[in-house]
Amino acid sequence: MSFVPTPKPTSTSRRWWPLMFGYPVLAMAGVLTHRQGVSLAACALLLTVVMASSLSTRRAAPWAAWLGMLLVMAWLGSRGMAGLLLECVPIAINILLACLFGRSLRKGSSPLIARFIEAIEGPERLDMPGVATYARHLTWFWTLLTAAQALVLTVLLLCAEPGGLLRSLGVASPWPVSGEFAQSYAHVGGYVLIACAFLLENVFRRLHLRHIRHPRLHELVLGVAARWPKLVRGEDPASP
Any idea where the domains of the chain sit in the sequence? Predict the structure, then answer.
């Protein structure tokens, strides 16, 4: 009897993650064209990529959750609320990241950045002078940055003129913000900020910890992408 092995979640995730770059393209297209279908496609693509690892296990529960959320998205879209759903996605992403980084800073836990260093460069790297302290400080940095960004995005969602949630409810915005700027920052600018922070931190780290050798940027990016799903779940990245 032949046996077809179940795909490993990690390999499935690697195959699907490049599709994440399609999300900002579809999201911005939905904003510019005001087409509900495009906005829904952006949200559906993001949901599928995020859940790819769970879906690859072929268990009923993840597939039921995925189909249920797609139906909720379709219901919102049928009532003209796909745009609002799209606006909430960047806020949810930043809140999730802030929680992931912040939770790892609890007493008795290993900071998330320290886990990445250990997984990519080996546990001995954390024993080098200044590395463990830097890992904790960097985890704090990402916690505060993503939390601040979630707050900024929430203010933009509420106060955009026109298109803001307050305006749609008939409430005057206390801090009027251009609707075009709010949408551009939410779907493009916020991700550019994260990318710039990542690049600048890479430069700063090489100067601050110049006494040790650092992995090349592409090695670091690939290492983080390959190990991210297991590390955020607290699993051993070397396990199958």
Answer: 1-80, 90-240
